[in-house]
Structure formats: structure tokens, C-alpha cells
Amino acid sequence: MSVDAQTVRRIAHLARIAVGDEDVPPLQGELNAILSFVEQLGAVDVDGVEPMTSVTPMAMKKRADAITDGGYAGDIVFNAPLTEDHYFLVPKVVE
Amino acid sequence: MTDLSKTPAELTDLTLAEARDGLRRKDFSARELAQAHVDAVAGARALNAFLLETPERALAMAEVADRKLAAGEARPLEGIPLGIKDLFCTHGVATTAGSRILEGFQPHYESTVTHNLWRDGAVMLGKLNLDEFAMGSSNETSAYGPVVSPWRRRDSQTPLVPGGSSGGSAAAVAARLCLGATATDTGGSIRQPAAFTGTVGIKPTYGRCSRWGTVAFASSLDQAGPITRTVLDAAIMLTSMAGADPKDTTCADLPVPNFEAAVSRGVKGLTIGIPKEYRVDGMPAEIERLWQQGAEWLRSAGARVVEVSLPHTRHALPAYYIVAPAEASSNLARYDGVRYGLRVPGKDIAGMYENTRAAGFGREVKRRIMIGTYVLSAGYYDAYYVRAQKIRTLIKRDFEEVYAAGIDAILTPATPTAAFGIGEKADADPVEMYLNDVFTVTVNMAGLPGIAVPAGLDAQGLPLGLQLVGRPFDEETLFSAAQVIEDAAGRTVLPPRWW
After folding, report:
1. ipTM of predicted assembly, 2 dp
2. Which end of chain A is more exposed for a tag (fewer CB within 10 A), N or C?
């Protein structure tokens, strides 16, 4: 399978990465090189094989459903580019 | 006393174990040791190994260490100066992951691995350069420029890569800027740079070290480990880094073994497997020779060496380039210009996301996010992602069958070539760079421990390494066998200072 220029733009939009017109041809070539490299996996017999979900056999650790952490909103928003009263600020999304 | 004192160069030439013992004997102070390393770091900026130097913090930590040493309360790594890969979040110290998108980010928390090192008395020299978000095999994808290896080809001044993604860690350890460094390994990022720089690097079993507070690349593959100059030093450092952590549900609730004691255990009675599938086309004859030499060293030390088969080996690298980008595309969705790092305005919120990520991520990171987005998208998920996860099951099963048949560890080359020049692969397609990890990536796919240990030099005078792969949570056997190779090969003579 290979991707065309339109697919490259669609993937970039899904990934929320702006691409200029000049970025599309090189990206298309690079993505197709990777896709053609992984194409060989189509020949592997995977009938009856379960997909891996955990690399080491382990039961998910659980803890009591209790509040164990929190109370430092200032630390949480410390690195945000734009904040007000411990809220993250984003451009208007609802009219 | 004066005739016993060491010069700064003698202090930075010590191994971690020698420095630890010297501090306890009061041969020198933690402050002298820290100052010698702070000066070595400042004198090696040409290598670009450090993204951030923290000399004041190093000297302050060394003063605490001297008080502990004087009081006879030395902790396991008391006064040992270390470098920290800039993928580990450090409280109040900028953490970039080698990316523009995290420029200026100051974590208000400490990663569990670094927390454990400071708990045990280690001293922080600064943050080490790396491939952007640990995506690379040469340290050339760092937004802050490539790292230059302290190694050069014989009679040549061509700058070489130290490997990647833990290129700053490997270069700093090889150049004697620190006694050890933290590193991380998703597909070979500890073992490949260790092999390229004549240092020792171990990726422990998935779950041995907590991933909490380490910037995530591919969560089912990422593991932290040390890069050091000797096998013993790696055992000492991993003992402090590892351990259960309630903050990471994938971190194993297992006690940390006495890795240091395992180093001198030898290999008598062990069975070492040589996987025939690791004999790849175009592998240089000297790597093949070194591999046979390694097998011979282990045999001479009392191990039984047998050929084994891992039939799905060749599928590991392509399957990795589906699984790792898929996980990366999901993990890196958090860099959106809202909570931390760079923000570039747009015409609406989606435009802000797109502009921020376009400006903040480098080419390799964008490529991998886009591949990951594609293989997870509707219509392709089964054909790519689910198939790759099934192949991952087959790769792991190969190892399980070999270990069930009585093999204790597997010996392979660490890399298919020695280090290459900076920029030499710039015009190649991305897959050529990915081939660097052909021998290491299987180990991540199966969650196993793997260690790279220096085994000799090639015809151009560059280091080559061997890799040992162990059973899950049996790093001890890797330390035992790696020490046999280190003893037989002799400690690598590191390059003299030219920088």
C-alpha cells in the first residue's frame, strides 16, 4: 500500500500537524519508504495468533478508590503558555 | 596526604566502583570528585553531550555527600557524579526531551528513576542530549544539534555519531565527563550507543524500572537503564534505578536482586544460545568474527554454547515500525500548546494545535507520528496494527521456546556496523537508519533484558559490542556473562582527550 498526496494531507490533519505544499512530496516519499518496508509483514502467517496486549504477564495493580494526591493547581498550570485563575486558556471553541 | 591526592584527570578516569570505594576510604572528597567532573563537562562543550550543566547543584549535592561520608552514613551511590538523559523529568530543572516543543519546560516533579538515584546519594551534573523524544539511532534528530562522539577513526578527524537515542549519555560516559549516565531504550537506544562508544549499557526487563516521570515515547517498549564504563558499574547503578513503584502500574512488584554480587558469578554450567537468524546479509566479517570470539570466551569460561533458532527475528524491525509509531502518535498527542511548552497561535483551536506541532516537532518525530496515525486510522488498524501485535506474540514465543529448552542467555552482535560519520546517512531514506536496531529491537518487542558490552575494535579502531539477551527478570545472568566478556576482551582503552 502506498499513500498519495491527498492521504498525506489527511493524515497530517488527523495528527494535527500543519504541512505546507512544499512539505507534502518529501513526506509522501518518506512515508511510502516506511510503508513498503513494513509491507513484508503481510506474508507472515498469523492465523490463530492472539495480538499481544501485555509484554510481561502481570495483573493490573489496583489501589483503593480514595483521593491520595492533589491540591497543587499552581504546580499543574505552572508550565502552561496561557492561564488565568488556575485555568488553562485556549482560543474560543464555542460560539 | 598530598602525595596520595589525585589529579582531576585521575579522578574522572576512575570507574564508578573505584570512586565509591575511594570516597569511603577518604582518598578524596565528594566535592573534589564533583569539581573534577564539573570542570570536565565545562571543558567538553565541543561534544555537545550536555544540554544543561548544573554545576551549583552538583557541588551542593557533593557537600551533603561529604557530610554523610564523614558521619559514616554513606548511601549506595554517595557522592557519585552522574549525567541524566534529558528524557527524565527533574524537579525545577529544565527538561526538553531534545525537542523545541518542550523548550522552557520545568517539571514540578521528579521521575522515579532519578528520585531513586538522589535517594541513594548520587550527584547530578546536568541533562544529556538525545534524539528528539528518543526517536533516532545517531543523536542527529536532537533539536539542539548532534552529539559528537569522543571516538574517531584511526588517522581521521571526521566527526562520528555516538549512536542514539542515548547519544549524550554514551558520549559523556566514554569521554569521562561522568561516572555513569541514565539512558532509555525503546528499540536499542541504550545498547546501540553503548556499542558505538565502547561502554556498557543494559536495558533491563520491561517493568524493572519505573517509567513514571520519564517522557513517554512508546509505553509498551520504553525502559530505563544505565550506561557506564564497566559491567560492575552498570550493576551498581541499576540496583539504585530499579524497583517497584506504585505510580507506574506496569512496574513490577519485585525486589531488586543483588546485581553487584551477580557480576562475579561466572558462567560455569550455563548454556548460551547463538541464534542463527542474526547472521544477516552484508554484516562485516569483523563483526561475525567478534561474535564467534565472544562465544569462544564464554565456552572457555565453562559455558555450553549451542545454536538456537528464533525464526521470527526478521519480522521484528518492521513490526516495531508499526507498534512504536502507533504508541508515539498517541503519547505525543499531549503536546498541543495548552498545558506546557511551545504555543503558536492559529485561526482557531485546531489551527493552534496544528501550528504548534508543526513548529515544535522535528522531521523524524513528525514522520513517526504520521505513520502511527495512519496505521491506527479506520480501515488500516487491523491490517497494520493488529497484525504487528500478533507478530509480536510470535517473536516473544520464539524466545520462550528457546528458554524453555534450557538456554540461560543468548549471544548476538549488538549492532550491524561500527559508528558512522555525522551526516553520512542524511540523504538515505529513513529505513536505512532504522536498520541500526536490527539486533536490539527484538528484545524490546519481547520485553526481555539485554546488555551491550564492549568486545573489541574494528580495523579503523572503533569499538564493537556484543549483546546478551536474558530471561525475563534475570539481569543477574547477563551481568555474570557480560563480566566474562569484559575480562576476556580487556577493558576498552577510551580515546584520549582531543576536544
Report:
1. 0.95
2. C
